Amino acid sequence: MGINFKFAALAALGPLLFVGSACGSDDDGGGGDSGSTELEATLSDFKFDPGSWSAAADEDVTITLTNEGAVAHEWVILQSGVTITSEADLPATEEELLADFVLTETEVEPGDTQDMVFNVPAGTYQIICAIETHFDAGMDGTLTVE
Fold this sequence. Notes:
Blueprint: H1 5-17, E1 36-44, E2 47-49, E3 52-55, E4 60-67, E5 73-78, H2 94-100, E6 102-108, E7 113-118, E8 123-128, E9 140-145
Parallel strand pairs: 1-4, 3-9
Antiparallel strand pairs: 1-2, 4-7, 5-6, 5-8, 8-9
C-alpha cells in the first residue's frame, strides 16, 4: 500500500483523531433531523463521489464512507483555512501534519463501509485522502458547513 512516513501517523492515530462513530445509515445523504445530518461518500481508486458535501454548523454529522476501491482510502478533513494543491504542500513531520493540518480523519479498507461522526463550526473544509499519491491522483473534495 505504501503509506508515506508523514502519513503513517494518520493511520496509527485515526481512532484518537475522529470525534466518534455511529452505526448504520439508511439516509441518502440529503439531510437529517433535529440536530443531526447524514451524508454519504464512496471512495474509489482515486476519487470521492460525490466530491462535495454540505452540513449545518455545530451539529453532529454522520458520514457513511464506502470504499469501492482496491486499496485503503482515507477521508481527512483539513483544518478550516488549510488548503493544499499537492502533496508537496504537506509538512515533513507527523507532528506538524497533525497539529497544523488535520482536523479529523478515518481510514476505510477496501470493500468496507464505516460511519464517521464529526461536529465542526461553520467554514469551508478541504477533504483529502492523505495516503501517499492518492491526493495527487485526484482524491480531493470540499465540505461546506453553514
